[in-house]
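Subject: Protein record for review, amino acid sequence with backbone structure tokens
Why sent: The fold of this protein is of interest and is recorded here as tokens.
Enclosed: The protein record, placed directly beneath this head.
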Amino acid sequence: MSRTLWFAAGAGAGLYAAVRARRAAEVLTVDGLQDRVGAAVVGLRMFRDEVAQGKADTESQLRERMGLALHEHRELDTPTPRSIEKEAGSS
């Protein structure tokens, strides 16, 4: 009985090692490396989008707590329609 047990254990270990070796070889191929790099890029993009969304949510919450409007501050360089009319009328 112990010979059968050791044979089964050895066969299982050999099969496990063969499968692991095949997977490791696939990872080191050009296609395998491209897949890993592509997955890393997708992961980084998702992380970047999550951080940007978190920042936007936090900013909205802070503006709400402080009682500020979302677009309260206007750009100083952008002319308003009334200032354009005044410039056109004074010329």
About this structure: The chain has a mean pLDDT of 84. DSSP finds three helices and no strands in the chain.
